[in-house]
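[Meeting: bench + compute handoff]

Bench side (C.D.) handed over the final construct sequence. Compute side (W.E.) agreed to return the predicted structure before the next meeting so the bench team could plan truncations. Sequence as handed over:
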Amino acid sequence: MRIPTLVITNLLLAASVTWGGEAAPGGIVDGAAAFDRLKGLAGQWEADTPAGKARLSYELIAGGSALVERVAMGTMPVMLTVYNLDGGRLLLTHYCMAGNQPRMQAQAFDPATGNLEFRFLDATNLPNPAAGHMHNASFRLIDADHLATAWEFYEDGHLKMTETARYTRVR
């Protein structure tokens, strides 16, 4: 019996969804509390990175139901990330210069430290699971004026690089 290529691709993609991230202790993340904390990022931010000056902006849209992040770094194309709740789950969709749109789900949030971890859920416009894409993202909401980020880029099923930055609010 011949298995259609689409079925195999979907099975590989489903396997990649569960690979690379662990669930939060107890398997429950307070998505609403994490989203409320993210809303406090609204404004303009800057960081010095190896790729040049990074400018980050956050804007609440749609009556406060979505937070849009816009990042410009050095000479790289501008990218967008949208954060929103889906029921109790906190999701992000990253519109990447790689031409795909990975979605990640919050898997851990510690309100005391401000640590928030997202893990790969699925992606649109990803030709196959081995194609390069952002796979995980971590944030440390240090205080009202400082934010640290780490975005993991995977290719061929493995971590290829991590983009890190420490941002300071400029307004």
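W.E. noted at the follow-up: DSSP finds two helices and ten strands in the chain. C.D. will use this when planning the next construct.
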